[in-house]
Amino acid sequence: xxxxxxxxxxxxxxxxxxxxxxxxxxxxxxxxxxxxxxxxxxxxxxxxxxxxxxxxxxxxxxxxxxxxxxxxxxxxxxxxxxxxxxxxxxxxxxxxxxxxxxxxxxxxxxxxxxxxxxxxxxxxxxxxxxxxxxxxxxxxxxx
Length: 143
Description:
With 143 residues, this protein is α+β, with helices and mostly antiparallel strands. It has helices at residues 3-29, 36-39, 56-63; strands spanning 40-48, 51-54, 71-84, 87-99, 104-119, 122-135, 139-140.
């Protein structure tokens, strides 16, 4: 590959991985479980404050706990993407709002560490670990 081709491949990889992070938020917030195979490998391993999941089925069961909220909104920032051949890591800050009801919400912040690998269908997450930083009690909502 030429230097230009190498650069284009690196930029394309980073863009695809950043898009996966954004789609992960939508997947959680909008219950897009029919898109799970576009984000995760079949053998994905997840470690989160709510528990661990091994594989797609357990992952969907774990994330389904979000259905207790009227709505959630996850915002991931400060992406640090490292690509090493056919694998990659992504570190992101996540701030999430959990709407409990018309009058209350809670806010959580954490660090997410993704592991990814290139598949024949593109990049997919094969590992996800959530480290909580701060979580509020229920807060009164202004709107």
